[in-house]
Amino acid sequence: MTDFKMTVIVPVFNESDNINRIASTFTDYFSKSPTKSKVLFIDDGSTDDSFSKIENVCRNNSNFEFLKFKYNCGLSTAIKAGIDTIKTPLIGYIDADLQTSPFDFDKLLKHIDNYSAVVGYRGNRKDSLNKKIQSKFANSIRRALINDGIIDTGCPLKVIHANVAKKIPFFKGMHRFIPALIKLQSGTIKQINVQHFERLAGKSKFNIFNRSFGPLIDAFAYRWMRSRNINYLIDKTNIK
After folding, report:
1. How does DSSP assign 62-98, residue by residue?
2. Residue 171's pLDDT is what?
3. What domains can you pick out in the chain, each with its CATH number?
């Protein structure tokens, strides 16, 4: 039995046109990466044939597993379900659109032993002008309200120690604040420039509302959580 070191969460909602490409791209990555990894698809209540394709991929390759929700729960819930389920020491995360590359996980993994998490930032984004403006606006709101020092919180490429990820306090919209929530626990973050590509298939699930107004509400939720956060450091104990 193979000992996997990292499980990569891939949330899926109506990404039928991307499933086979994810499988082939990750299979290529698995064959070349020095880190033994696998993929965990989280089907977030897809209404197209995404899940049937996921089942087929997983049926033919032990490096792919799945969870299927009965109904759509949202991206943060999908990530949480993955984190709750994973048993490997490292957790990766990437979006199903493959606008970032699995091969860049190796860039992040080079540093993971020295940090709680290593996250990517898209130094040369290939999005439309409209999407870039929306993301820039959302990032400016987040920086103004929480000032967490994260360059690109929307970049989906991340590697986190599982014991750190399992302690992250979850709420809807938390996927935008994963590095900030790790830092709230006195965790350390390394940021690495990663590749970014145009979306080749499927449709984006984001718009001006969930890129801008949603993050504004969530930023206030984070500020409240930060003001009420509990941290402690044990000095001595006699527990055996």
Report:
1. TTEEEEE-SS---HHHHHHHHHHH--SSEEEE--TT-
2. 76
3. 6-129+151-199 (3.90.550.10)
